[in-house]
Design brief:
It is a single chain. The chain is an alpha/beta fold and 267 residues long. It has one domain: Rossmann fold, CATH 3.40.50. It has twelve helices and eight strands. It has an eight-stranded mixed β-sheet, sandwiched between helices. α4 runs antiparallel to α5. It is globular, with a radius of gyration of 17 Å.
């Protein structure tokens, strides 16, 4: 399938826009800070050969601008609406970075809606290093032009070995990640919510579905130790650290990691 169906739900917290790709068992993709569904690039099309892929815009950006302010809990409720609107009782979920935190909240708040969970490149709590990371994002969003901010952030999104080997891929990722001017207020509101305080560890014990947690060995934004701590708080979670990878672990892990994720989601 070459192009997605575009849907918008008028939910109780405001509009929720999502793309729907392909056919088969459902798979919900939850992206990170400031991200529209377009951030996934070619991944939804590739996965649509096996799944019905559902890719929403996070609250505050894209077609999900407006409504109530962003919260992780509210975004989990938005995600549950997407699954129900698409006609599925439950789904597999892949959540990356801030999307991983939303995915965890979804599995806690709506356990019936998630049958398998893959969480990548995120930590369970706000640490001093995470505060500095969020401050860097704030400066990038407010002091730089969107294209400059996106290019600067690629230095942290990909390990240098990967970036040198696949410069065209990284350039494309920067274009996909570039904020539209109308999305900047929503992205800053997401940042403000995260900076206000975060510790999901007490709630993670309530996740009952099979869970795979992925970390990049060299991730400077969500260090592997923080992601390992998140995995340890989820009962019977499987932890997988990708050698030499930074924050964009799904891309850096290549087809081998993607196939591993697919096998996990379908067994």
């Amino acid at each position: 399938m070459g192009t997605p169906e575009l849907h918008t739900i008028e939910g109780p917290r405001g509009p929720v826009a999502y793309e729907r790709w392909g056919a088969g068992p459902p798979l919900l993709l939850l992206a990170g800070l400031g991200s529209r569904s377009r951030l996934w690039g070619e991944l939804p099309r590739l996965l649509s050969e096996r799944f019905t892929v559902l890719a929403p815009d996070n609250r505050g950006v894209g077609g999900s601008r407006g409504g109530e302010p962003f919260t992780l809990e509210g975004s989990a409720d938005d995600a549950a609406l997407v699954v129900a609107d698409a006609g599925f009782p439950s789904t597999g979920v892949i959540g990356v970075s801030m999307g991983g935190l939303i995915a965890c909240q979804l599995a806690v708040r709506h356990p019936e809606a998630v049958h398998h969970l893959v969480v990548a490149s995120c930590g369970a709590r706000l640490t001093p290093s995470h505060i500095r990371v969020l401050r860097f994002f704030e400066l990038a969003f407010t002091r730089l032009a969107p294209e400059e901010a996106a290019n600067a952030l690629m230095a942290f999104a990909f390990a240098s070995t990967f970036a040198d080997r696949y410069p065209g891929f990284v350039d494309q990722a920067a274009r996909l990640w570039t904020l539209d001017p109308d999305d900047r207020p929503g992205a800053l509101q997401q940042l403000a919510h995260l900076k206000a305080g975060l510790d999901l560890r007490p709630r993670l014990a309530g996740i009952a579905c099979p869970t795979l947690v992925l970390a990049g060995e060299l991730d400077p934004l969500a260090p592997a130790a923080a992601t390992r701590e998140l995995a340890a708080a989820i009962p019977e979670a499987r932890y997988r650290e990708v050698p030499g990878a930074a924050h964009s672990v799904l891309a850096e892990g290549g087809s081998a990691l993607l196939n591993e994720d697919i096998e996990f989601l379908t067994t």
